Structures are given as structure tokens and as C-alpha cells.
């Protein structure tokens, strides 16, 4: 093209109409690019045509139903000056007879023809029986002569046998056609989701004839993607430090009613629906409680609401590489562009797309909650080194090359820290047992009841390398001044009290040498008036 003039208008801006049209331009459009969000997709259709001088109209035919009218945008370029005009969205005219309809029509016609033959043969057989049941002396004006009776009987018998066999075959043929119709009905294609297809007409004006390229962008629902991860942990042990490889993938699918073939595919990490502004904070007033008036019972209705490394492949001279998406990150949002061109048919089948892989530095911790589970769980702390957030999603967990289960990743902002659990470690033993439980009757201390509880937790490291353990235990806590809970001196001093603001929790951190063990004592005392009943939680 000699001169390219880029033009872009939103639907709301395309309100200027053009004079009488020179005519409609028939040119097939194609889907060139798609951006999939977690809750929808933005589709770009392109049409290229030879435009005459003057006013014209291009129609983008067969768009899926349910297009968001407010998101229609048109941009274009041409060899000369081009002005875009109005944009019209309308239901597409009814399509011609489909292949299904043609096949069904042919079968029904074939069945009707078979029924005509069946009726004719049945009538013929009935007439033959009627003839065979007539007395010989009643046939003809003077009746049959005795010497003609035997040939007549033979003729009637042969006719009935032949006609009966033909009728049997005709009935079988009719039944076979019925089976075909039944099978075709069962395979009837489902209607397009949302209703009839839609057309979009774009008016434009060009002072001189030339080539023009128009791109129509619109948003559709019934499409989206969810993240999926693979986390490969190498524990290292005494031979080296730990390492983590975190692979990010996308499971994209769509059921819009149109196939996306050979398109440029972009995955956005941010949704397009939901609140765009902070909610307004309304003032609240404190009042005395007023019992509500009794109401009649009302019925309430409730609205309805991979890959790859499970086994080690034989070593290759040059390992295969997975082509990954290109990350583009701005100050507020990030997108991934899939390599090459991608096809994603309608129908809901998911396509697995590799987005990125990172190997951040990690810290290993053996986390222990002995009051709830007498096992040590290996936890990895890492930093998201990418400029895109890690969205919540399922993660397949591999430890030293073996698949150990599945977990779920929480949201981790760019360059923020996150944690992944990698299952229980059977080489770090945990044992928690009660040491003492004592209840003093009120008579001992006046009108106050006292209860003492004491536990001991033992952690033993069977590895040949040291481990960093974090033990979290708990005591009851009280929000009533008449109930007092206090730690006793024999408690091993904790490193943290009320971590993350969780009252009643105690946390100990320590390094445990190979083959070494450590005891942690927890003792506390509870006091309350003897005339009151309390609920004491039991860890």
C-alpha cells in the first residue's frame, strides 16, 4: 500500500452517518487475534477488500450471539483517506438449509416412498386373498370349469407367496429407514449458544478507489482461562542447596459458537468484569436492640447458580525445549502472548499453553503443628521473580523428580514472597504427648476453679543434614476478665506469641542437627469462678 492511514473509533463515537451508500462490499472476514481474560475474551475480526470511491458498507457476517454492544470498536487503514461512519449490529438472516436438514429431508422422502410400496403390496395381497376365497362357480359369468380349478389355485398360491415375500422385504426396508432417522435425530447438532448469529455493518467513505483493511473488535462471554502450575523441588540435602522450578501454564477454553483458527492469542492476567471503584463507606449508628415483629414464613428460592515429567525420559543428546509465551508487563497489568498462531475451537475443550518458567531462590522449612498432626511438612518459601502476578490455581507437586500430589497456589504479587507445601517428611519424626493434667476443686482456693495442662513435643531429625523447624502450638485464650489463662514457667520460651495476630498461638523456630532431637514443653493454667461453667477446647 502506498499510504496507510490508521483510524480507530469506539462504538459510541461512531454516530456520524454517511450519505447514500454506493453498495455493500462482500468480503469474508477472518478472526486474526484474540485476547482471553479469566472471565471472557476480546476478538478481533479483519476484512480486506477493494473499496470503490464514495460511500460503501462492509458487513462482518456470522458473529456469535451475545456480543457486548458497548465494546464494539472499529479501526481501519487504506491506501488513501478513509472515513469511518456508523456501525450497526443486527441479527443475521436465517441460514440456508443445513446439511442435517438436507439429510433428514432425504430420509423422510425415502421413508414415504417405502410406505407407498408397502401399502401397494398389502393391497395386492388382500386382493389375492379375496380372489382365492371366491367359490369357483362364482368366478366369471359362468364360473370356472373343473379342469381349470387346479391351475387357478396354483396361480393364487404363487401370487400370494410372491406378494407376501415382497411385502416382508418392503417392511424390513421401512424399518431400516426408521432406524436411520432415529439415529440422525439423536445426533442433531445443538443450536448456537445464546441464539441466532449476528452481523455487524460498518459504513465508510473513500474519495478514491483502493484497498482497505478494517478490524472489528468485540467482547464475548463463554470464554476464559485458568492457571495451572508445576512445582519441581530439588531438596539437595548434604550434596548441595535446594532448588525450585516453577512452571506456569494456562488452560484456555471457549464455547462462543465460533472457532478461533490460526489466531494470535494473548492471555491477560486481569478480569474485565467486577468492581472498578472502591466501595462507598456508609456511616453506622449504634442503637438499642428492638425485637423484630413476627413475620409470616416465606418460601426462599436459591438461584442456580499436565504435563509432563512424571517419569524421567531417556537422556537425549540435546534436551527438548518448551516454547513459552512472551510476557509484556506494564505498571498496572500484564499479558502473555502465545508463540506463533494458535487454534482454539468452540466447544469447551481446554488447550494447555506454556506461559513461563522461573527458578527463584528458595528457603526450606519443616513446619509442624503437633496438636493437629504429628508430622513435619516440608514448606518452600520463594519470591515471584516475574513482573506478572501468580494467580490462584492448582499446582502439581514434584519432589526430587517424583510426583507427590497436588496443592493450590495462592495469589502472589510480582516480586512478592509465597509459600508452597511439599508434603510430609517421614524422616523428621514428631511426637506430642500429655505430661500432666490437674484439676483443683474450688475448696482449695476459695471460689476459684483451677485446671493445669502440660504437653511435651519431641522433634527428631533422621536426615544426614540439618533442618530448620518451625513448631506452632496453641493454648486457649479468654476474652472474659473472669477467665484467666497464663503460661507456666516450665514452658519452653517461644520465639513468637500470637503470630499473624492469631491469639493463643505460640511458635518456636530452631535448627536441628542430623540425628538430633529437641523437646518443647508447653504448660498453662486456667482459672474461672467455680459457679460458672466453661467450655475448654481440647487440642
What features would you describe in this structure?
- The chain is mainly β.
- It folds into 3 domains: 7-94 and 196-220, no CATH class; 103-186; 226-252 and 356-539, no CATH class.
- It is built from 2 helices and 27 strands.
- Helix 1 (99-132) runs antiparallel to helix 2 (146-186).
- The protein is extended and about 135 Å long.
- The protein starts with 6 loop residues before the first strand and ends in a 10-residue tail after the last strand.
DSSP, total strands: 27
Please give the alpha-carbon distance between the first and last residues: 77 Å
The percent range for strand residues is 35-45%
Low-confidence stretches: 1-22, 297-316
Mass-distribution shape: extended
List the domain count as a whole number. Answer: 3
Helix content: 10-25%
Structure class: mainly beta
The averaged pLDDT comes out at 81
Describe the sheet with the most strands. 9 strands, mixed
Helix segment count? 2
Rg to the nearest angstrom?
A: 40 Å
Order of secondary-structure elements: EEEEEEEHHEEEEEEEEEEEEEEEEEEEE
Can you give me a brief rundown of this structure?
By secondary structure, the chain is mostly beta strands. Helices cover 14% and strands 43% of the residues.
Write the layout of secondary structure elements.
Layout: E1 7-10, E2 24-25, E3 30-37, E4 40-51, E5 54-63, E6 73-78, E7 83-91, H1 99-132, H2 146-186, E8 198-206, E9 210-220, E10 223-234, E11 243-254, E12 260-268, E13 326-329, E14 334-337, E15 342-344, E16 351-358, E17 362-369, E18 373-383, E19 393-399, E20 402-409, E21 417-440, E22 448-461, E23 467-474, E24 484-487, E25 496-497, E26 505-512, E27 517-529
Parallel strand pairs: 2-5, 3-12, 10-19, 17-23
Antiparallel strand pairs: 1-6, 3-4, 4-9, 5-8, 6-9, 7-8, 10-11, 11-16, 12-14, 12-15, 13-14, 17-18, 18-21, 19-20, 21-22, 22-27, 23-26, 24-27, 25-26
Amino acid at each position: 500500500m502506498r499510504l496507510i492511514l490508521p483510524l480507530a473509533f469506539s462504538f459510541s463515537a461512531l454516530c456520524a452517518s454517511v450519505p447514500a451508500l454506493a453498495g455493500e462490499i462482500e468480503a469474508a472476514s477472518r478472526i486474526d487475534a484474540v485476547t482471553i481474560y479469566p472471565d471472557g475474551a476480546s476478538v478481533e475480526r479483519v476484512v480486506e477488500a477493494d473499496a470503490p470511491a464514495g460511500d460503501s458498507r462492509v458487513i462482518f457476517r456470522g458473529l456469535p450471539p451475545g456480543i457486548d454492544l458497548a465494546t464494539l470498536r472499529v479501526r481501519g487503514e487504506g491506501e488513501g483517506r478513509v472515513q469511518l461512519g456508523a456501525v450497526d449490529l443486527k441479527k443475521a438472516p436465517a441460514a440456508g438449509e443445513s446439511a442435517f436438514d438436507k439429510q433428514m429431508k432425504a430420509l423422510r422422502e425415502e421413508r414415504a416412498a417405502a410406505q407407498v410400496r408397502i401399502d401397494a403390496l398389502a393391497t395386492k395381497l388382500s386382493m389375492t386373498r379375496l380372489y382365492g376365497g371366491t367359490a369357483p362357480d362364482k368366478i366369471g359369468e359362468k364360473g370356472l370349469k373343473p379342469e381349470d380349478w387346479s391351475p387357478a389355485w396354483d396361480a393364487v398360491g404363487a401370487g400370494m407367496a410372491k406378494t407376501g415375500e415382497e411385502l416382508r422385504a418392503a417392511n424390513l426396508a421401512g424399518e431400516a429407514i426408521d432406524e436411520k432417522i432415529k439415529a440422525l435425530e439423536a445426533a442433531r447438532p445443538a443450536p448456537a449458544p445464546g441464539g441466532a448469529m449476528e452481523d455487524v455493518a460498518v459504513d465508510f467513505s473513500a474519495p478514491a478507489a483502493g484497498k482497505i483493511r478494517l478490524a472489528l473488535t468485540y467482547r464475548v462471554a463463554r470464554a476464559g482461562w485458568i492457571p495451572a502450575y508445576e512445582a519441581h523441588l530439588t531438596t539437595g540435602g548434604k550434596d548441595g542447596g535446594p532448588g525450585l522450578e516453577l512452571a506456569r501454564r494456562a488452560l484456555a477454553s471457549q464455547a462462543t459458537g465460533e472457532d478461533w483458527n490460526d489466531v494470535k492469542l494473548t492471555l491477560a492476567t486481569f478480569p474485565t468484569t467486577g468492581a472498578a471503584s472502591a466501595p462507598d463507606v456508609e456511616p453506622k449508628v449504634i442503637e438499642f436492640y428492638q425485637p423484630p415483629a413476627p413475620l409470616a414464613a416465606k418460601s426462599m428460592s436459591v438461584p442456580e447458580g499436565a504435563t509432563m515429567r512424571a517419569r524421567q525420559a531417556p537422556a537425549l543428546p540435546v534436551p527438548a525445549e518448551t516454547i513459552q509465551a512472551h510476557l509484556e508487563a506494564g505498571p498496572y497489568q500484564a499479558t502473555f502472548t502465545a508463540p506463533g498462531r494458535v487454534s482454539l475451537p468452540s466447544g469447551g475443550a481446554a488447550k494447555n499453553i506454556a506461559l513461563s518458567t522461573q527458578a527463584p531462590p528458595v528457603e526450606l522449612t519443616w513446619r509442624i503443628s503437633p496438636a493437629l498432626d504429628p508430622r513435619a511438612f516440608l514448606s518452600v518459601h520463594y519470591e515471584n521473580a516475574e513482573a506478572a502476578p501468580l494467580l490462584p490455581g492448582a499446582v502439581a507437586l514434584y519432589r526430587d523428580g517424583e510426583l507427590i500430589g497436588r496443592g493450590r497456589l495462592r495469589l502472589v504479587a510480582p516480586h512478592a514472597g509465597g509459600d508452597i507445601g511439599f508434603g510430609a517428611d517421614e524422616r523428621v519424626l514428631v511426637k506430642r504427648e500429655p505430661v500432666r493434667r490437674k484439676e483443683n476443686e474450688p475448696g482449695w482456693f476459695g471460689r476459684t476453679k483451677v485446671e493445669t495442662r502440660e504437653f511435651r513435643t519431641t522433634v527428631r531429625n533422621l536426615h544426614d543434614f540439618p533442618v530448620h523447624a518451625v513448631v506452632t502450638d496453641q493454648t486457649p485464650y479468654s476474652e472474659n476478665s473472669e477467665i484467666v489463662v497464663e503460661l507456666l514457667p516450665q514452658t519452653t520460651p517461644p520465639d513468637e506469641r500470637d503470630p499473624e495476630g492469631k491469639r493463643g498461638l505460640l511458635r518456636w523456630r530452631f535448627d536441628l542437627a542430623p540425628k538430633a532431637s529437641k523437646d518443647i514443653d508447653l504448660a498453662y493454667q486456667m482459672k474461672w469462678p467455680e459457679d460458672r461453667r466453661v467450655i475448654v477446647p481440647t487440642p
